[in-house]
Amino acid sequence: MIWICILVSLIIGIIIGAFIMYYKARYLLHNQKTLYNELQDKKVKLNEYQKELSNHFIYTIKLLNKIEDDYRHLSHNVKKSANFFLPNTHIQDDIHAFNTKKTTIKNEQLPIAAPLDYSSNTENTIKNHDNE
């Protein structure tokens, strides 16, 4: 009689375990599908953002090239005007000697102290913390 109770309990336990495993696997599969769909959506958004960013940089490069060309035309016109209005003067030599590539920019940095994330008086904080 005891063998029959053990056998019935074993069969009931196996059936209950199978149901639990089935529903747990189904729940995990649903979560996995959801995460996979979110991943695909994020990949699409990332690709769109990368395309948008590359288009932005291409547009910026085109603008900078146009600015450079306009600057060259302006410089050429200034030199032509200087030759026309100021012939045979020392200013003309100064204008021709000016070259943008030879100019240097001095990066003068001010001595700035970085802000601290903590108080400079740490002894009092440790003592106050120990007293509490």
From TrEMBL:
Name assigned to this protein: Z-ring associated protein G
InterPro entries per record: ZapG-like
Superkingdom of this protein's organism: Bacteria
Any one Pfam family match given in the protein's UniProt record, by short name: ZapG-like
Subcellular location: Cell inner membrane
The species this protein was found in: Blochmanniella pennsylvanica (strain BPEN)
Primary location recorded for the protein, binned into one broad class: membrane
Family (UniProt): Belongs to the ZapG family.
Topology of this chain in the membrane: Single-pass membrane protein
Transmembrane region(s): 6-23
Keywords assigned by UniProt, alphabetized: Cell cycle, Cell division, Cell inner membrane, Cell membrane, Cell shape, Membrane, Transmembrane, Transmembrane helix
One GO cellular component, as annotated: plasma membrane
Keyword Repressor: no
GO BP annotations, alphabetical order: cell division; regulation of cell shape
